[in-house]
TrEMBL record, chains A, B:
Coiled coil regions in record: none
Protein name according to UniProt: Hydrogenase maturation factor
GN (gene name): hypD
Protein family: Belongs to the HypD family.
Record Gene3D superfamilies: 6.10.20.100, HypD, alpha/beta domain 1
Keyword Protein biosynthesis attached: no
Species lineage: Bacteria, Pseudomonadati, Pseudomonadota, Alphaproteobacteria, Rhodobacterales
Automatic annotation (TrEMBL), chains C, D:
Segment forming the signal sequence: none
Protein name (database record): Hydrogenase isoenzymes formation protein HypE
Limits of the PurM-like C-terminal domain: 173-319
Chain's gene name: hypE
Organism: Actibacterium lipolyticum
SUPFAM superfamilies: PurM C-terminal domain-like, PurM N-terminal domain-like
TrEMBL record, chains E, F:
Name of this chain's protein: Hydrogenase maturation factor HypC
Family named by the database record: Belongs to the HupF/HypC family.
Function (record text): Involved in the maturation of [NiFe] hydrogenases. Involved in the biosynthesis of the Fe(CN)(2)CO cofactor.
Species in which this protein is naturally found: Actibacterium lipolyticum
Membrane spanning stretches: none
Gene Ontology molecular-function annotations: carbon dioxide binding; iron ion binding
Organism domain of life: Bacteria
Amino acid sequence: MKYVEEFRDPKAAKGVLAAIAQVTNEIGATREKPVHIMEICGGHTHAIFRYGLDKLTPEGIEFIHGPGCPVCVLPMSRVDECVELAERPEVIFTTFGDAMRVPGTRKSLMQAKADGADIRMVYSPLDALELARRNPDREVVFFGLGFETTTPSTALSIQQAAAEGLTNFTVFCNHITVPPPIKALLDDPHMVLDGFVGPGHVSMVIGIHPYDFIARDYGKPIVVAGFEPLDLLQSVLMVLEQIRDGRAEVENQYARIVPDNGNPVSIAAIDEVYEARPSFEWRGLGEIDASGLRIRPKYAAFDAEEKFGIGYGGGQIRSVQEPDGCACGQVMTGRIKPVACPQFGTGCTPEMPLGALMVSSEGACAAYYQYGGARSPEPAE
Amino acid sequence: MKYVEEFRDPKAAKGVLAAIAQVTNEIGATREKPVHIMEICGGHTHAIFRYGLDKLTPEGIEFIHGPGCPVCVLPMSRVDECVELAERPEVIFTTFGDAMRVPGTRKSLMQAKADGADIRMVYSPLDALELARRNPDREVVFFGLGFETTTPSTALSIQQAAAEGLTNFTVFCNHITVPPPIKALLDDPHMVLDGFVGPGHVSMVIGIHPYDFIARDYGKPIVVAGFEPLDLLQSVLMVLEQIRDGRAEVENQYARIVPDNGNPVSIAAIDEVYEARPSFEWRGLGEIDASGLRIRPKYAAFDAEEKFGIGYGGGQIRSVQEPDGCACGQVMTGRIKPVACPQFGTGCTPEMPLGALMVSSEGACAAYYQYGGARSPEPAE
Amino acid sequence: MNMAKPITRLRDERVTLAHGGGGKAMRDLITEVFTDVFAPPGDEDQARLTHPAITEPGAQLAFTTDSFVVTPVEFPGGDIGKIAVCGTVNDLVVGGARPLWLSASFIIEEGCEVALLRRIVASMKVEADKAGVQIVTGDTKVVGKGSADKVFVTTSGVGVIPAGRHLAADQVRPGDVAIVNGVLGDHGAAILAARGDMALSADIQSDCQGLGHLIEAALKAAPGIRAARDATRGGVASALNEIADAAGVAIEIDETALPLRPEVRGMCEILGLDPLYLANEGTLVLFAPPDQADAAIAAMRATDAGRDAVAIGTVGKGRAGLVTMRTLFGGSRVVDMLVGEQLPRIC
Amino acid sequence: MNMAKPITRLRDERVTLAHGGGGKAMRDLITEVFTDVFAPPGDEDQARLTHPAITEPGAQLAFTTDSFVVTPVEFPGGDIGKIAVCGTVNDLVVGGARPLWLSASFIIEEGCEVALLRRIVASMKVEADKAGVQIVTGDTKVVGKGSADKVFVTTSGVGVIPAGRHLAADQVRPGDVAIVNGVLGDHGAAILAARGDMALSADIQSDCQGLGHLIEAALKAAPGIRAARDATRGGVASALNEIADAAGVAIEIDETALPLRPEVRGMCEILGLDPLYLANEGTLVLFAPPDQADAAIAAMRATDAGRDAVAIGTVGKGRAGLVTMRTLFGGSRVVDMLVGEQLPRIC
Amino acid sequence: MCLGIPGQIVEITDPARLMAMADVSGVRREVNIACIADGPLESLIGEWALIHVGFAMSRIDEDEAAKTLEALRGLGEAQETLEAMAAGDAALEGRA
Amino acid sequence: MCLGIPGQIVEITDPARLMAMADVSGVRREVNIACIADGPLESLIGEWALIHVGFAMSRIDEDEAAKTLEALRGLGEAQETLEAMAAGDAALEGRA
Ligand code: SF4
Ligand code: SF4
Ligand SMILES: [Mg+2]
Ligand SMILES: [Mg+2]
Ligand SMILES: [Mg+2]
Ligand SMILES: [Mg+2]
Ligand SMILES: [Mg+2]
Ligand SMILES: [Mg+2]
Ligand SMILES: [Mg+2]
Ligand SMILES: [Mg+2]
Ligand SMILES: [Mg+2]
Ligand SMILES: [Mg+2]
């Protein structure tokens, strides 16, 4: 596959890994005193475990798995609202597969479907749009989930629906944005972070400048990275080099995809359709100012919150208690490793997830569990 | 079972059969020169074959199986209209089981159901009413089929729907009345009939006086009969006695059920809800004046013809060609026996009925075929 | 970190598509609901079996299958699991086979309650134990909501027919006596009432039961028994017609001899149905030579499933394949196979 | 009057409830669509069977069952009938059994086209002939519109395991080589594309095929083969995990060795799926002792179903039940069983 | 045509809608009693009526039933005293 | 987060709605090209773009891709000449 295979070449990896090892040495990072690098994006977390990069990189590098999995940070109360919407008889509820298994307080979408709700997994909001065209007597609700990468697709779909005059298509908007939680983490006095691997696909939409504050205000390096293993390794190397050199810059490893200024069409569509909410709740992180989007009044006809009277009350009012003993917040802020959670592997497994990080395969706990970050392949004594 | 078992007592039958044999003798009826008695009602046809009465009575008595099976005389075009109604996505089409297998030009209701139409078999129009209550967003159409026996039930159901203010219940009215076809048959110069066994359950509604014209104007005996085998035999005996005595009267063998003046509540309900159509098509008999009912304008909201714009165009316009070689008309008028139809048992079987008389188990051809009127239990040479 | 396995892993109340996906959820469902109860031998997807009866000279294997789709899944007198075991056991034993092993395959609708599955499996186990068969292999599939009716069960059965036994429809001869083991139509009437479509209620239980012990008892007392057939779909009328066709004989039954519950009679009168065509799930027709008929009936009556055994007709020399009935009124009529299913009549 | 039987009695284009009612319509459907093609022995509802291999000393019977519910019913590379025969044949042969007889039970949705049933039955016959098995008994049920998805097929299989053969998951030993017979995930990817839900099109055919000849060839060349398992639902990953669990061994596979079609790879990248979990219907994993692995691969490659046979990993002494993969990048990760079915990921 | 069967009214279930429970040989069904309700509804309990498609269509007249049966039995007895008896037997048993 | 994969635009399928067929390793899917349509649509044919949830989100810059690869390869070659090579090999093979 063009633009894929080249960036998975194991031979080229040798050089990068050697360079990483050398720079790690130069910095003086060790297992006991590691350098902490946060990969913000769940896609990067997934790639680290899928290719075993955590075991290939020196012990002096400690990956902190950031909040960049939109499924993991979705508050339970919003899942409950999805279920309520889906259970309306007139509604065809459409969603990406990722959201199906996230537990709400009553049930997951998977369970709601088993109970009879008409829930369909789609690959694209365009497929939801097509369902709306074909089912004029039903209400098709699309579960708009994701960061800036995905937001343009629902904005463009809403614009398309408006252009066609569709009256039975709405989006249940849960889009969130990357910079605010990073700022929140950086403001957290408990947080120890030496640098960031930045989200490549978010950046192809918004460009690299929204991260300027990280370098400028907090003095931390950030390298926007692609998702193939060589991309990731090169980005880690670039972060390490900044640390070694005492630099704090926004660099772009993923320039083949990410224009420094992002994609103007996407940005325009987002601005036209969405506006920032005053604040939005992140599971494990709490309310974060201006971190979520809502549909502008102009497009209220396509807003499931408006059409079905759901609204967004904010965490103070609506948020529901996280399950007892769940340490998701601490894991997400890098304070503890997943395996240090008392629930890990017992009260919380992928079969029966207690916390959100065990649900999505991009969640740090699920990745640890599934890809064995926690479980040694050596025989147990 | 009270009022049932007593009238099936084989011992009591001996006397009646002996009396029948004797009177037949007295009349001088023989196999070659039989007395022709028409049982008007399909229920009587069914009972004759179910109990083997045709083989117990003397050869000098020839039963002519009348037009009293509402399924058999239903014109094909009306079946097509049922299918059209049933295929509307908003419609739940409800029907007695009898009508499911009657072939239309395109398909039967059974086939329409297999093709996806929402068709439900019910025992009572009250069950259709209940479906309408439970499915306020669907249109429940009840297939109103049958003679005066059944007509009060749909009339009362329509009145009940009106009283409750139901707006999603309609009746597709195909109710027909017994006296007009009898008159038509009596007016047919080819018809040879010496007397009638009258329909007991029709008469419990309309009483026995609607048959006065048979005795008075045509000089033929008629005995209103019950449906148990002793009822039937006694009625045959009473017809024979009238013939022997040169009488032509309307007699009531079924007085335990049939009041001479019928049931006033039923008659009032029919009159309130229905009115006579100028004419109605009978399969095999053609158009017969004032032989069908339609819903009065007052109840138009409950009239599927009105609500769905079907109307009744009359046979001249709407009736569709009967299948080639079908002799149903001749069988129904008693001109030939079912087995004399060239299609009987080959082109026309209960599996693949060509004519209507092969569909219902009350149809003369089906009764002959199924209960062996046509097939000797002796070994075939 | 604690990697110990939790004790119960199946915590869902209802089956979801995840339980059909080939992963841990499916494994947990299969283990906790099915194999913990059936306890099949071994871990492989195929059962590996030996039995001395199979290798005896002259023995034959009997192999049969049926899918069960009854609605409602639970009804007075049984459930789909009981029927699925009894039905396949009966298909074995009416051919003279000793049932040995069953397979059980489940097609489960998304949303089906796990507790319902547990009840079904429990009743399968009870019936299998009664019949002396082992459920040795199985399968589960989960289909989307609306693509099945809660659960469908398919069982297959393997049995062994001892040397010298030859029960078959074509063995029936003129003069033989047709015997049923009990009242007719209970299952069909019970299901009609339980379904509720006609809003009729009646205290009728399905006759659902295994017939192995009954057949063995009858064969011991009347080794000349020619054939037996369980009168399931299509009722006794269809079973008789199949036998008449296969044997090339005529059969005459006697309406006055037919054992019927008053409630079944009542339901038939209301709906215009003929009880001869109502389904049974534990009722058979058996043909014995005239000199062994009384012995067969007596032996049947000594078993649980045969208390009401009675002769209902005889085999004659009439037209091959023809079944007739002497009516209670002394007349006679043909009892043909139906075309399709029996529909309630009104007019 | 003409009482001769018409030549074709099944004139309906679609199945109606009448075809499930136990009467003539059902008989005609069964005769004309099923038994005329399968030609089972005898007229009874049970097949009566003998085979010399069964009575040989040390032989075992193998018995297995599966229900098939694939949507769409016809897809590139096969149909539900082909899968139903191949799937059950494969469940027999992966245990070393020679398949002898199949049962086939159909749950048909009202409205199903008769022509579709005929095509399914024809493809079952073709596959059964190829595998050398006979479809000897069967059943049909008709359920209401919306209570099934056109047609479900359940097959059960009986085979005989010759004396001395013992293929079982728990026979796998450290050092053994894991071998697959061909590319992975074709069936899962073909069905995903054929279903159309994701609006993806690709020229991918299901790998649906019988594996009997392949196994016999491999066993002849490498009689020490320990175990084989067809990697159906849950894919190769699940098959490996089951074997690792049963044998109490660790298995390490090599990502670079996994045979994958570019289109399957592409579909997995688009949807965020892992091909190790995609279903196969004619692909197995087989374990051979190290000194016979090459012989096994060579023998497999000489068969139609094994042209792309290749070693994908080895059995080690790691933690019992653990399957790991050396990634193409030289790293290592656990390949666990999935929880439920694999869902397309977007984010 | 017009299948009907005698049933006994055992309970008034919904006086407003004129519904009652009828019993036919142990089988129960709610039926409409408008056609037979010419007095206080309670007085219908225990009464027999002809049931058709969920409606009690006509009350059964016990006296008339008895009269019909009497006539039938009388016919039987009368015939028994006649030599025509023999012919009747033949018809009953010989022809089937 | 944000699964994306390079695909090649092979056909414009609906110019009005800005839809085109994209090919990913032989798998085809109709995608929206609004975000990459900055010139005549036909000129997109043959171009590569990053595909995400049915949208072509960003055109792939071939030169930048080549530069990145070059840097990666250069890194490899540079390291090969150093004795640090040994340490790199150990990391690659020893730890798994
Ligand atoms: S193991 Fe479960 S509860 Fe604990 S942090 Fe991870 S997801 Fe949260
Ligand atoms: S055999 Fe068929 S075509 Fe002929 S008269 Fe009877 S119903 Fe009509
Ligand atoms: Mg069977
Ligand atoms: Mg059976
Ligand atoms: Mg049977
Ligand atoms: Mg299986
Ligand atoms: Mg027959
Ligand atoms: Mg199996
Ligand atoms: Mg299998
Ligand atoms: Mg298998
Ligand atoms: Mg069967
Ligand atoms: Mg494992």
